[in-house]
Amino acid sequence: MSFAYSEDFIEQVRFNNDIIDIISDYTRLEHSGKSYKGLCPFHDENTPSFFVNPEQQLYYCFGCGVGGDIFNFIMGVEGIDFREAVKSLANRAGLSLPEHKANPQAKEKFDKKKKLLQIHELTARFYNYLLTSSDIGENGNNYLKQRGFGNDIVEEFQLGFAPDRWEALYRFLKNKGYSDKLLLESGLILARKNNTGYYDRFRNRVIFTISNHQGQVIGFGGRIIEDVNQPKYLNSPDTIIFDKSKNLYGLNLAKKFIQQSNQAIIVEGYTDVITAYQYGIKNVVASLGTSLTSEQAKLLKRYANTVYIAYDSDTAGAKATLRGLDILKEEGLEVKVIILPKDLDPDEFIKAEGKEGFAKSQSQAETLIDFKISNILRGRSLEDVDDKIIAVKEIVAVLAKVKNKVELDEYCKKISERLRTSEGVLRKEIDKYKFKMRGQDRKSNYRNNINTERELADALNDSRLIKYLKAIKELLSIIFKNPNLISSLKSQLEIDDLAKKEHRELFTRIFEFYHEHNTLEINQILQTITNNDAKNLLLELSIKDNDFLDDTEKTISDYIETIKGYQREMRIERLNAEIKKAEKSGNFTKQMELMKEVQLLRREGN
Fold first, then answer.
1. pTM of the model
2. Which of these CATH numbers, 3.90.76.10, 3.40.1360.10, 3.40.50.150, 2.40.50.140, describes 251-367?
């Protein structure tokens, strides 16, 4: 409701709430002279510096300097404004909020919200009773025990069970006096076809109660416990009290721990949150099955500056997830990604490795930029020129958004080393990308605004790649004019010696065709090639006019050595990068093994 409360009402709320009772819900207070003291709920500390004066009804922390009355405390600890704080404390004291006759629509909406919150609170108790105190919940109890959830956790998270009955909840709520119209608006009850009655949305499911950050029940998630042809999870629809894009599962319990540590951990599922909490990792929330939104980011920003993402490996690579991480970053949050072992979600990982194992993974979390770059490079071979070019283009788009110059400098150094290319080339491409993004060259897109792919490839690998590409072309030209030299070529050249995909496919098809027909027919070979770049190269070289030296076998050997030498140098650079990594991590055994491999490769080139 959009109106200010009167001073009289605010004083009434103040009078009916005791600051000791309120603060005791968030931190343990001990008597200390005329005051009480405890660990500050606003910052992480080991020695109590937070004092509460019951006579003055005020608090102050000598550690972080926060202080005030009951309204200041609730505003700070809950991350809400003054009006919401008054409302929260009034509800706590059992005071009815004053009516606002000037806006009947607002009052009607407020009253409806209040009733829907009542319905959801009753529903949570109903499902929890069936789970914990009735034979009906036996299957649900067995499922939760199998997942390792104890009775304390069941109560703290208000877990429940929806029976395998069509109208159990409907009849329970009807008996409480709620209308069919309101029950339909709650999303908990559905209308049968042809207006023949109503039935429960959740049936034969373990129930996860969803509360907002103030602890009010606003929705539910239900997990099926039998292998039937139904969705594994079923969630409440959006209502006037529940919008999944504006809420986070578990925040009502996690917020004080998030605030104390100044860190939040986001996971995917209900059980991920509950398992983490049970193992003592209590600053954890879940994103309710949606990509992270700006509303959720703003909500987290109230309590912390740093957010860790702990999704399973499959989800963490999804584009929607990356967009969600960008949203967190845009809201001013520091974002880090916890990399979990393949095929493990947080629930499984924590049960296997415990709190200590998870803490170790958290300490090794990647920054958002590092995570994006790892995603770009995953599955790509830096020995493959095409993969390298694609990787550079995508990495440039990521680095161009880094605003901090010192941070950008560090990333340019690190990535140029990882890509085995010059820092200058990377910076040049970043500048060109930024130029295009500013819209200063609307006639050309990014592909045309930077170097052509061949120019970029040349820049990335300097003169060595130029010599390699020339050797490939000349070698192909020779065998097109002299197919009888293919046997000699094949005995000296392995397909894996070639750096580009189109080269590997082209030579493979040529060798296969010559083996079968003892000659080369360009048109027929073209029909067997799927790579467009390989086709274009074959067409280009098939019409090229070359004058060759008499000692063509010697020429072939020289070109083959150039090709092999290029690949050898690429492997040496990759190994040198791994040697540096092994040196930094203190793995000297691996460092020595890699150095031996480099020495062997260098001997091959001599």
1. 0.68
2. 3.40.1360.10
